[in-house]
Design a protein that fits this description.
Strand content of chain A: under 5%
Oligomer: heterodimer
Strand content of chain B: under 5%
Order of helices and strands of chain B: HHHHHHH
Structural class of chain B: mainly alpha
Radius of gyration of chain A: 20 Å
Structural class of chain A: mainly alpha
Number of helices of chain A: 13
Helix content of chain B: over 70%
Largest sheet of chain B: none
Largest sheet of chain A: none
Distance between the termini of chain A: 61 Å
Largest interface: A-B, 105 and 77 residues
Chain lengths: 252, 119
């Protein structure tokens, strides 16, 4: 048993390929068997991944899902930002520049609109839950932009660690919801063409959420959504601790 | 050679990330400003111009399409390493904030996408 474990850990990336392969296989089986393929296999695979991450978190008390389990540490590398970014860039191969150009303005508009919208809603909810100091309100609002913008803005304006922790949690909830809900509502909101994918990326912004959500809807749309989403966190980091904090500070 | 495709993808990714990091440092923020987006632009430009001029070739192309096809499994791995407990432990406020933001943002997608048609 120790011997097998040793090999699995030493070759952790290969173990990760097998692990993910099994999840995907199981997901497509479930999709075929119980929904006649209507509920997409990759959407099920992403949800199963999240469930495994939850179970792993319960047992290991770690923050990195299944990759905190020694034999599955390779999942951390496979699903980490290096290979994810590499694969996202690869999806741009074959995407049309003309599609980007024709809806470029829409994409940029949705980017700024999305950051301000998420921030405003997050800040209002913070106020509704009784937060009164502008630093906490801004930090929680920043967290609903993305879980990267939250802590970056929070530490930039000197918020306390409770607000920063909350902002990360709010951002994580957002990201996980985007991953799971997108395939369910895609048809109803018209998410089936490059233009709406760009707007989607700009409004949601969370890289992992957008990446997973679009993958489960139509992999061809991934580059368009990812293109706008890649600028989202940066826009958030730029305007939240400066302009938006200034406005919140004026109001409270 | 299949490595040419992978290397081209790597060059685009690295250049994009370097520019993104550089832009971040100009704005004084510790984040990559659109690095992936710039990398995607580079690759799209290369794939539309190199193909005709330099002939990247079918097999080289497979080095890129492999990574684009392995994208979904990578996303599944990414889901499996999320801090799901952290999200749920953040308390009611974090969960409410997440839900409201996502639902409202979804509502705006068709509104913004169809804006021009309605006018």
């Amino acid at each position: 048993m120790n011997l097998i474990q040793e090999i699995l850990i030493q070759n952790n990336l290969i173990t990760a390929f097998v692990f993910v392969g099994l999840i995907v296989y199981l997901s497509y089986y479930l999709s075929d068997k119980f929904s006649n393929g209507r509920f997409h296999g990759s959407a099920i695979a992403i949800i199963l991944g999240l469930i495994f991450a939850y179970i792993a978190g319960v047992f290991t008390n770690g923050k990195n899902g299944v990759s905190d389990i020694a034999i599955l540490s390779g999942v951390g590398l496979l699903g980490g930002s290096m290979l994810r970014d590499f694969a996202i860039v690869a999806t741009a191969y074959g995407a049309k520049l003309s599609d980007l150009r024709s809806s470029g303005f829409m994409g940029i508009f949705s980017l700024f609109f999305g950051v301000v919208l998420s921030f405003t809603l997050g800040a209002l909810i913070a106020i509704a839950f009784g937060y009164e100091d502008p630093k906490s309100i801004t930090t929680i609002g920043a967290g609903t932009v993305t879980f990267v913008v939250g802590p970056i803005s929070g530490s930039a304006i000197g918020a306390n660690s409770e607000a920063i922790a909350l902002s990360i949690a709010a951002g994580l909830v957002k990201s996980i919801l985007v991953m799971t809900i997108t395939p369910l509502v895609a048809k109803r909101i018209g998410l089936n063409n490059p233009k709406s994918a760009m707007v989607f990326g700009g409004l949601m912004g969370t890289n992992s959420g957008v990446a997973a959500g679009l993958a489960a809807v139509d992999p061809k749309l991934v580059p368009y959504g990812a293109m706008t989403a890649t600028f989202y966190t940066a826009v958030g980091c730029l305007i939240v601790p400066s302009l938006l904090f200034f406005l919140v500070d004026l109001l409270f | 050679m299949v490595i040419y495709g992978i290397a081209l993808l790597g060059i685009c990714t690295l250049i994009g990330l370097i520019i993104g990091k550089f832009l971040g440092s100009i704005f004084g923020i510790d984040a990559n400003v659109g690095g992936i987006g710039i990398a995607m632009f580079l690759l799209m430009y290369c794939s539309s111009s190199l193909n005709t001029k330099l002939q990247i070739g079918d097999i080289s192309e497979k080095g890129i399409t492999f990574w684009s096809m392995i994208y979904i499994p990578i996303v599944v791995a990414m889901a499996a390493r999320q801090n799901v407990i952290g999200a749920l432990d953040g308390g009611l406020m974090a969960i409410v904030a997440g839900i409201v933001v996502v639902v409202v943002s979804f509502l705006f997608i068709p509104i913004i996408t169809n804006y021009k048609k309605d006018r």
